[in-house]
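Let us practice reading a record.
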Amino acid sequence: MNIYDFINSSDIREYLQKIDYQFTPTETAWVIYNCRRLDVTMQDKHSAWDQIIRTMPDEDIPKRFNCAGFPSLHKFLMDYMAVEDRLSERFFDHNDAVYFLRSYSRHYREWYNDWDRAFPAFDAAWADAERDFTADNDITAVQVKRQVLSNPDEYMIFTFDTQQRVLTIDAGTTLLPKPDETVYLESFDGMWFAIPHPFHKGDIVCESDSDGRCHSAESGLCDGPFVLLGTSADNPSPRTIANGDNSDMNGYGYFQNEDGSLYYEVMWNYLNLEHYRGELTGRRRILTAMSNYLKDEIGHDILVRAYHYIMTEEYLNSIRISDITDEGMKLAGLR
């Protein structure tokens, strides 16, 4: 097993290999859990966890605010995999269940059939999803929701690749026996680690897609490239070290609204970050100015002037007149 293969970010993966970072057994297990690459299936994760049990020392998992704590990592991993196996059995049992689906198009960067139709069995839902597997749509993942008919509030969601291999399991609101609930819901997400990364203050970064492509669309909060100020791993507080969880493994900095204005925000999680390699044009040039300001390459006076200049220039470009004749432009005093 090459643990670096489970790192989502190619930049962080290469950096950790370069410095020969040695993961602890629990860190190794968590990195495998955190992996969302489309070429890594649930079965691949189970195989890797089995290898941890066979080849790495056992250790205890300390109790934290959102982690129950476990005296043996090896036993915990065996129990965790057993819960996922039981969830899988329940998911594919169509008795007293109805299925919904949605498919993600990498080309259009949106979900198709967003839970809008019900199917009596998983096979029927999958057959419907396959009709969208075209080159134009470029479907990369399918999520199927199993909802219990006798209890509409109970559901679980499985994510598949296009070959129907399970990638991730979301237990949703599935009612689990208390031991299973503790193992599955009070473990990995309650852990926190300070894993090294190659980024510095002022770097322009973005969160990689699950298939390795970098986010660049302006479709929501914390989407697209942003100027990094730091991460929770840089100078963690004592509270974070003692009781931080998955949600505290974040990066923070200056993001951009669609109109070009900047805002400060925190994203999750920093281990998915990569250097942004796209071209910064139009309003995106403001990120270049902010980046160089944070790196002490320019002063705040130049930053402010650049910000207003770019915003004004882009606004003028957006209202540029193209549907009036030259004569009309002269008569209107525009030439």
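A brief commentary: Residues 91-172 form one domain.
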